[in-house]
Amino acid sequence: MSDQSSTTSWFFTYTKIRFFTKIRRFLLLRTAKKQYKAPDHSEKLRDLSSASKKEGKIEKEGMEKENDQDGWVVLQRSVKGLHFGRWEEKELAAKEIKRIAKEDLKTRKSMGELGIIQPLVAMIESEVVERQRLAVQALIELANGSFTNKLLMVESGILSKLPKKIDLLDESAFQDFAHLLSSLSSLSSIQFPVSSARIIPFVVSILDSCSSIETKISCLGTLYNLSSVLDNAGNLVASGVVNTLLRLSSVGEASEKSLATLGNLVVTSTGRKALESSPMVPENLIEILAWEEKPKCQELSAYVLMILAHQSSVQRQKMARAGIVPVLLEVALLGSPLAQKRALKLLQWFKDERQKRMGPHSGPQVGRLSIGSPVNKRGVDEGKKFMKNIVKESLYKNMETITRRANGAGNSSGLKALVLSSSSKSLPY
């Protein structure tokens, strides 16, 4: 019995030990799980990415440093070739300078300080067209965004080295020279004295000779920049540029820049006289005034017409004979806000002109009835009624034209009734 009780006691003790051992093991495992933190893969990826970026940055900086060193070596070689090399070396140097100058503005400015502009300008006098073209293209890149480089080009005498025989140039050469001169003429905005007497004849010759609209627009940009300086008006007019601008103002792509240049010229007495004497004025400008799809051109055309019509009854009569009043009425109704304002101003002048013609005039009067006579009063009433009907009919025709253009042809009897029932006092002119 004692043996059995001892065995039971031992078994109970063993079971108890195992139970507590499992509990302890469970608690240790749970504690370990709490203390253990699973690896964060995103952090590992970020660390790897950061290391990779750092390594790539170091590699990139090394490559950039190496490229900078190589670029500096190429630039040094190009500068040396321009100054001391043979023609083949000069051509190769011009190509390299053109390529390097495209990189950024800082590079272009630093290149201008290395003395490369003067030998490039000298290359323009070469009789070899390709060599001349390489020099012009390199100078275009160097001038891009750098007033300093442009000043250096002008001071190096580039304007005196423009080709004398323009018939030897092809379309690509026209385009290059037009682009370069357009860039150099922007110096006018900082009041730097650019010799217009040398530029203008060359640019006008390109305008008359080239067929590319892009080249023409570059030339017009040059003329516009020069016309912003009032002192250049005399040289511009003397070169016959007014008729050229009037002709190009009828060309859609070139119209806006041509009209803007005419707007600069018309405010000078020389430019205004040239416009007044042109056989294309005012017909060309009135035609442009009717361009509904080009509001900017309408505004510029109206501006030039305003300057010409101001205090000039002769010009107003020419415009009236050319049919400007119906066009102005249409612009006053459908044009842009600025075009409407200018059209209404012109219409007011024509109204004043008409009233002035209808009013009493000086000089001997033969057989004139007294103001207070009943015959004269009846005649005045009939005349007013007649003029009122004419105005209403004119308004109806113009409104009908406007409506037809906007909505297509259709029944306009309602519009006619509305207009005829309105007072002529509501007219804007």
Give the gist of this structure.
It is built from 21 helices and no strands. The chain is mainly α and 429 residues long.
Description:
With 429 residues, this protein is mainly α. It is 75% helix and 0% strand. It contains 21 helices and no strands. It has helices spanning 2-35, 41-84, 87-101, 105-112, 117-123, 129-143, 147-155, 171-185, 196-209, 213-227, 233-238, 241-248, 252-266, 269-277, 283-289, 295-309, 313-321, 324-334, 337-358, 374-407, 413-420. Helix 3 runs parallel beside helix 6.
CA(first)-CA(last) distance: 138 Å
What share of the residues does DSSP label as strand, in percent? under 5%
Largest beta-sheet details: none
**Radius of gyration based on Cα positions:** 42 Å
Helix content: over 70%
| Basic shape | elongated
List how many beta strands DSSP finds.
Answer: 0
Q: Which structural class do you get from the secondary structure elements? A: mainly alpha
